[in-house]
Design brief:
Low-confidence stretches: 238-255
Largest sheet: 6 strands, mixed
Number of strands: 9
Bound molecules: adenosine-5'-triphosphate
Mean pLDDT: 91
Number of helices: 7
Radius of gyration: 19 Å
Structural class: alpha/beta
Order of helices and strands: EEEHEEHHHEHEHEEH
Strand content: 15-25%
Length: about 260
């Protein structure tokens, strides 16, 4: 069996006159967690959608495993199905048992919500159901498109911990699209930056978990990534003096965020 989960070579995607992806190369090993940063409109979601077979390419080569699942920014639950039924909704008939769904719900801390309706869940709970629905199929590739972006700061940190823990346990290959530099460095084995249709950075993180944003290696990688993203101003991170913030876009509570 190959060690490679995803192999992309020379990928092109053109909208109108603009080649949003233009000769992009990306390899993700089995079990590897890659975070993808890039300015708004740089093509991150386009790449993710192509890997998830939700969009086509206009050239190049894309090799992905068969079992791949996606978590979007919004949970996209079926309102007329209870939580348990939502969790197993995409599974093959025979595999969609109550026990399989319950196990996945317990993993995301929602074992007691199996019979609840989606409309009664908080945003964080609904997103955890979406995560359970994605993981229950035991994907070889998990595609995460800004899955924490709509959550409040505390819920976001908890979700990041949960996703990190579950991915380390189940070891799917992961591509996480995010605007949050700290989120990328906290979670990923490698962080890539997309600019002008290609990956201009592919940086291994190499810091033990749990990762402390105050760790010098964390701070150094944050600086490098912000530089690669074209953000050159120093960020003052002292929460007691927000007036010192000089970053052009406000950082998220978990770190520096691009807009
Ligand atoms: N179906 C489409 N038709 C035309 N243009 C599109 C289509 N999908 C995406 N685009 C354009 O491609 C560019 C890249 O979009 P994409 O959503 O991939 O960027 P992104 O990096 O994910 O942005 P953001 O961080 O703001 O979500 C944008 O300019 C977008 O308008």
């Amino acid at each position: 069996m190959s060690d490679t989960a995803v192999q992309v070579r020379g990928l092109r995607r053109v909208f109108g006159e603009r080649a949003v992806l233009d000769g992009l190369d990306l390899t993700i090993a089995r079990g590897e967690f890659v975070a993808l940063l890039g300015a708004s409109g740089s093509g991150k979601t386009t790449l993710l959608r192509i890997l998830g077979a939700l969009d086509r390419s206009d050239g190049g080569e894309v090799l992905v495993p068969e079992v791949r699942t996606i978590v979007f920014q919004e949970p996209r639950l079926v309102p007329s199905k209870r939580v348990l039924a939502n969790t197993v909704v995409a599974m093959p008939r025979g595999a969609a048992t109550r026990e399989t769904g319950l196990r996945a719900l317990r993993e995301v801390g929602l074992g007691s919500h199996a019979d609840a309706w989606p409309g009664t869940l908080s945003g964080g709970e609904a997103q955890r159901v979406a995560l359970a629905r994605a993981l229950v199929r035991r994907p070889e590739l998990l595609l995460l498109d800004e899955p924490f972006a709509a959550l409040d700061a505390l819920t976001r940190l908890r979700m990041q911990d949960l996703v990190g823990e579950l991915c380390r346990r189940h070891r799917p290959a992961v591509l996480l699209v995010t605007h949050d530099v700290d989120e990328a460095v906290r979670l990923a084995d490698r962080v890539a930056v997309l600019r002008d249709g290609r990956l201009v950075t592919d940086a291994p993180v190499g810091i033990d978990h749990p990762r402390d944003p105050a760790h010098p290696a964390f701070a150094a990688l944050r600086r490098r990534l912000l530089g690669d993203l074209g953000v050159h101003q120093e960020i003052h991170r002292d929460p007691a003096s927000p007036a010192h913030e000089t970053h052009p876009s406000a950082p998220s509570p978990t770190g520096a965020t691009l807009s």
